[in-house]
Amino acid sequence: MKGKSFQRFYESAFVLFLSLSLSLVPFPAIADFRVSKVVDGDTIRLGNGNYVRLLQISAPELNKGHCYANESQSTLASLISGSKVKLEADPVTRNLDKFNRLLRYVFVKDRNLNLEMVKIGAASPWLYDRQRGKYAEKLIAAGEAAKARNLGLWAACPEARLDPMNELFTGFANVNSVTPSSSPTSESFVNAGSYCKESEKGEQRLSKNGTKYTCKVSETENRLRWRK
Q: Which domains does the chain have, with CATH numbers?
């Protein structure tokens, strides 16, 4: 009888320990997660609603109209391509960023997608706050090789610079790639919140600082305005 009581106590204690462990570690390394959306070249959303920022890399900003942003996003999407992903934290870096996104290395099977994105020129190494994570040397070497071979963004974006200590900036995408009907004149740029016409509904254009806006109905009034 004492043996059975001890066994029940041991099993209960183990379940409690496991529950507490999972609450402290949001994503065990062994788990597989479904990806519901590829936000851009360095951010994904999981099926449970959590966002993951790929550690130690920087991709062109899609919502700012940066050069090669669309290609970077589609490249990451193709690397995931419906597969479940594994997440790996790095004790050298923070667990969350300022937007409460999980900071992780993302794997499909044994393939490190953070490293792969840099290898093919779809992203650049970025050692945020000069933190040298566990794959830092490989990421830097991969970035140098991709740039030397003129791969991806290194061929498409003349303004791109390889600087692992700073966030990547690739320059702005050509205005014509956002609105084919527009020419890159001062009239092509829009101001945030300004009114637009019914004929422009759904069109996307850039502001002078490179932010992309869409002509859509305002949230506060039944009028069309240029909105993010």
A: 35-156 (2.40.50.90), 175-227 (no CATH)
